[in-house]
Backbone:
């Protein structure tokens, strides 16, 4: 079987590796820039298993296990560190919601802890908790090194014989007799049996051209990074009041972002001073000690948002034979992709739809079985 | 000589006393802390982040934030913060035991070691790793201290107040346009301000040229000036500048920008090139000609360019014994060597040594080995245009052999949108070219802004410019102009980095000082991991991600990768710099208007 994977981010790399490890045949990965160019390398590099919906939580739990197992196989250390997530809650409704959902999380084996205000103060003395009523701490959540995860998949896939075509754009998927036949690239035509679209924010161009429309759109997200400082912030702190998040990388830099109005679409990956100031105000109010930190860098990447803020994987039986997608991660690409690659590779080769994967099929939109994930950070 | 140093006293300001590690020190109010300490023989200012190597300062540029010292509760760049009466400066020279114990293992790939990846060991290691890096500790700034945010509007903003920037601002003002010059130094003039030699190929003294330009500018009403202020790049919504001295963030509004940031003397790559006492060429000149600090009794100047020769000559005039060492053969040097003394050619490897600062140096060259005692080393083998801001703007760069990575521009000095360039940043080697470029950039900007009747002036200047280019034999410029139209790049072969003075990758020859990345790390990335694009080298090692955002390491890294991989530097490419190009304290940003 000849397979084209379009897109060299975490999604494409995971799919390509999992296909290769199952001896799927001849696998070609196309990337229009260099591997992990798109949103992968612009990631905030955090993972969590706590989602509002059972489907996403279960998927993430298994996916992170997959990522952890990877650690001993690859030549790169993915630097997994379970520093936890801390949600700071500023109204009773939020507390209720977390309390309620924590039952489901406990059920799934990932219980979090609800903190009273004074307990937060005790554990995280650097926080200003004026308007905080309580907090939710998810100890199973954490961070990883996005570049090393990608490079790890890349080196494994390469060793297994995946052919990487960097600096090669796929311009068109050629469909004949309701089957994918070829991909037209900037370096010529290639005959294929299977095409897997994993090109994140850029996926819709190719899909739309063959008449497939899924409810997704790219949303630019900006990130701020300070100079490195001695490590003191362990968890990722999400301020539910201002919509800001802030954490510290193992290298010592303080990283964070805030929900800031941005028009959807493939707008330039630039950053705005307005965004920076808005994050700085929120974060220096919450962590006054950060006033003395220095903003070193900002960058932007896309969240490929789907209508229900959950990823899309697999295929719709009505699509041309041989066409699969794995995109629309809505900001959760690194958390989900390790398992997406596994389940999708299995699905492509055997047709089996794993029960974890089933809710995420692209058919859910027309069947109106949306997942309704509302817990999106940033 | 003493008279010379004495004449500089006025520039240094008033005498002040401060404490360094609880010892009282004398300094001057207009002198950076690092210079005052160097004058007293205190060259080591701290330890590096990962390997805890002793570090001093390589340059006085506020954008090269290699080493920070603690002043009161704050960590500051000692090259930027001036001496002040009563301040307490503190430096911690200690090294954690574990780092001392592991130091032979610590390299760019330490965290990927197989053993460390075992789950249980990793969980133990990770807690240690995050504590082991030598980073400043954050202390709270009193919430009563606020920075200022000011909005400034001008027709044209000129970044860099050297010969090109000054000429551009003056030309624009004559056309009735308001311009604002932003310069990171305390005084305008750029390199002209502290280079005592004449403009190359002429009898014009730089001092007179600068004085003349400044007096002409002071007579026009249309030019305003911001010194000690760093232009921090273009955000999508605003461009910004920051003054550390005034704790002020400037939000800039302009119809056009002229970037005239000059060149950077790249660090040379040799063994122990991170020792205190290794300086950039322009910093050496700034130290002697501005601050009156004699760098030492004996010095090594690395390089065989015209620039190296000029620096050596100025040091020599102050009675310092100078040895010049470079790649070129003695016969190929076009200068009168008797004016500086000794020259060592065909250098293959340089090794500096010293306990806490440069004390001696071993030079391996084709005809043997020389061991010398020196007090300092000056890196002047190669200067690349300071392309940081243009890189942040995503302007295309083109590598030209012997000149460096050049921002692609047309003959109107236009690079992108409303941005023009002039001077050293265009790669041009001579002040005379810089002046004409300043004029052309200003005229082109004026034309874009709708000023009438500038076309004939532009045509005239372009002719003059072409004449100079021909006369000075700057043929590569036309290649750059062509590549602004023709997007394809002729790919050549790898190059030998002009800054490279080691024979094989060494773990004590550094490329990146912020993140402690060595030539050995890079060779591992290229040979073992197979990455040759600089973006991927960055991803695997973290090069260009430190406090200076690749200002000092990016070009050297690209050239070194080219050398190792046998690929053209244009294929290796550069990595993107992101706004802000120099860091800004959060408490200053918090003073701005958010949503």
Residues:
């Amino acid at each position: 079987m000849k397979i084209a994977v379009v897109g060299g981010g975490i999604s494409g790399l995971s799919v390509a590796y999992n296909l290769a490890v199952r001896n799927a045949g001849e696998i070609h990965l196309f990337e229009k820039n260099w591997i992990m160019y798109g949103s992968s390398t612009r990631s905030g590099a955090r993972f969590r298993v706590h989602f509002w919906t059972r489907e996403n939580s279960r998927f993430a739990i298994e996916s992170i296990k997959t990522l952890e197992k990877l650690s001993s196989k690859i030549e790169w250390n993915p630097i997994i560190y379970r520093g936890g997530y801390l949600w700071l809650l500023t109204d009773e409704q939020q507390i209720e919601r977390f309390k309620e959902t924590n039952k489901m999380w406990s059920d799934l084996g990932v219980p979090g802890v609800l903190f009273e205000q004074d307990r937060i103060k005790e554990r995280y003395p650097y926080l200003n908790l004026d308007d905080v009523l309580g907090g939710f701490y998810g100890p199973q959540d954490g961070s990883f090194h996005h570049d090393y995860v990608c490079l790890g998949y890349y080196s494994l896939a390469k060793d297994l014989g995946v052919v990487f075509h960097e600096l090669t754009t796929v311009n068109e998927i050629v469909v004949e007799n309701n089957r994918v036949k070829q991909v037209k690239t900037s370096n010529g035509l290639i005959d294929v049996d299977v095409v897997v679209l994993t090109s994140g924010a850029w996926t819709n161009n190719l899909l739309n051209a063959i008449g497939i429309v899924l409810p997704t759109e790219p949303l630019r997200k900006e990130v701020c990074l300070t100079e490195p400082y001695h490590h003191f912030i362990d968890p990722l702190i999400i301020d539910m009041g201002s919509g800001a998040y802030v954490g510290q990388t193992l290298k010592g830099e303080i990283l964070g972002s805030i929900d800031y109005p941005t028009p959807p679409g493939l707008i330039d990956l630039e950053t705005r001073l307005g965004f920076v100031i808005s994050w700085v105000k929120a974060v220096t109010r919450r962590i006054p000690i950060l006033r003395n930190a220095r903003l070193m860098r900002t960058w932007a990447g896309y969240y490929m948002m789907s209508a229900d803020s959950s990823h899309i994987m697999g295929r719709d039986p009505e699509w041309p034979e041989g066409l699969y997608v794995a995109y629309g991660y809505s900001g959760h690409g690194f958390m989900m992709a390790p398992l997406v690659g596994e389940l999708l590779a299995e699905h492509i080769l055997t047709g089996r739809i794993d029960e974890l994967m089933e809710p995420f099929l692209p058919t859910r939109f027309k069947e109106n079985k949306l997942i309704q994930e509302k817990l999106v950070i940033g | 000589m003493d008279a010379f140093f004495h004449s500089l006293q006025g520039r240094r300001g008033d005498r002040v006393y401060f404490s360094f590690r609880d010892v009282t020190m004398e300094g001057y109010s207009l002198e950076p802390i690092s210079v005052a300490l160097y004058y007293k023989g205190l060259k080591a200012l701290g330890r590096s982040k990962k390997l805890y190597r002793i570090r001093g300062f390589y340059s006085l540029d506020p954008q090269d934030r290699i080493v920070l010292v603690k002043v009161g509760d704050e960590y500051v760049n000692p090259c930027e913060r001036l001496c002040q009466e009563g301040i307490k400066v503190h430096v911690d020279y200690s090294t954690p035991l574990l780092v001392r114990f592991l130091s032979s293992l610590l390299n760019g790939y330490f965290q990927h070691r197989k053993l460390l990846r075992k789950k249980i060991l990793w969980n133990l290691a990770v807690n240690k790793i995050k504590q082991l890096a030598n980073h400043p500790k954050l202390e709270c700034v009193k919430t009563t201290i606020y920075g200022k945010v000011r909005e400034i509007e001008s027709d044209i903003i000129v970044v860099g107040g050297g010969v090109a920037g000054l000429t551009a601002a003056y030309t624009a003002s004559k056309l009735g346009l308001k311009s604002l010059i932003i310069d990171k130094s305390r005084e305008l003039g750029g390199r002209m301000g502290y280079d005592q030699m004449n403009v190359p190929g002429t009898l014009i003294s730089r001092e007179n040229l600068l004085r003349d330009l400044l007096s002409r500018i002071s007579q026009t009403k249309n030019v305003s000036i911001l010194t000690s202020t760093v232009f921090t790049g273009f955000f999508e919504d605003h461009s910004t500048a920051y003054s550390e001295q005034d704790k002020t963030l400037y939000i800039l509004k302009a119809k056009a920008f002229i970037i005239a940031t000059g060149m950077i003397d790249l660090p040379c790559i040799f063994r122990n090139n991170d020792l205190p006492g290794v300086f950039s060429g322009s910093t050496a000149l700034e130290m002697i000609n501005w601050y009156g600090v004699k760098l030492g009794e004996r010095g090594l100047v690395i390089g065989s360019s015209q620039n190296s020769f000029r620096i050596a000559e100025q040091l020599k005039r102050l009675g310092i014994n100078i040895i010049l060492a470079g790649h070129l053969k003695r016969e190929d040097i076009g200068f009168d060597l008797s004016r500086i003394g000794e020259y060592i050619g065909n250098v293959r490897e340089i090794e500096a040594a010293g306990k806490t600062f440069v004390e001696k140096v071993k030079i391996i060259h084709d005809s043997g080995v020389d061991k010398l005692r020196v007090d300092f080393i000056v890196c002047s083998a190669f200067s690349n245009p300071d392309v940081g801001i243009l890189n942040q703007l995503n302007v295309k760069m083109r590598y030209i052999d012997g000149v460096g990575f050049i921002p692609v521009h047309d003959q109107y000095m236009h690079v992108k949108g409303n941005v023009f360039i002039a001077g050293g940043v265009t790669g041009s080697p001579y002040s005379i070219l810089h002046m004409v470029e300043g004029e052309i950039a200003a005229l082109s900007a004026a034309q874009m802004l709708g000023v009438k009747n500038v076309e004939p002036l532009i045509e005239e200047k372009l002719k003059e410019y072409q004449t100079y280019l021909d006369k000075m034999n700057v043929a590569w410029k036309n290649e750059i102009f062509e590549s602004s139209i023709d997007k394809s790049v002729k790919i050549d072969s790898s190059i030998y980095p002009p800054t490279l003075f080691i024979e094989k990758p060494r773990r004590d020859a550094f490329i990146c000082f912020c993140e402690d990345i060595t030539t050995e790390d890079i060779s591992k990335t290229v040979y073992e991991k197979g990455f040759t694009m600089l973006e991927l080298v960055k991803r695997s090692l973290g090069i260009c991600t430190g406090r200076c955002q690749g200002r000092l390491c990016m070009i050297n890294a690209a050239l070194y990768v080219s050398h190792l991989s046998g690929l053209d530097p244009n294929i290796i490419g550069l990595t993107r710099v992101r706004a802000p190009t120099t860091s800004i304290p959060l408490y200053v940003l918090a003073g701005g208007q958010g949503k």
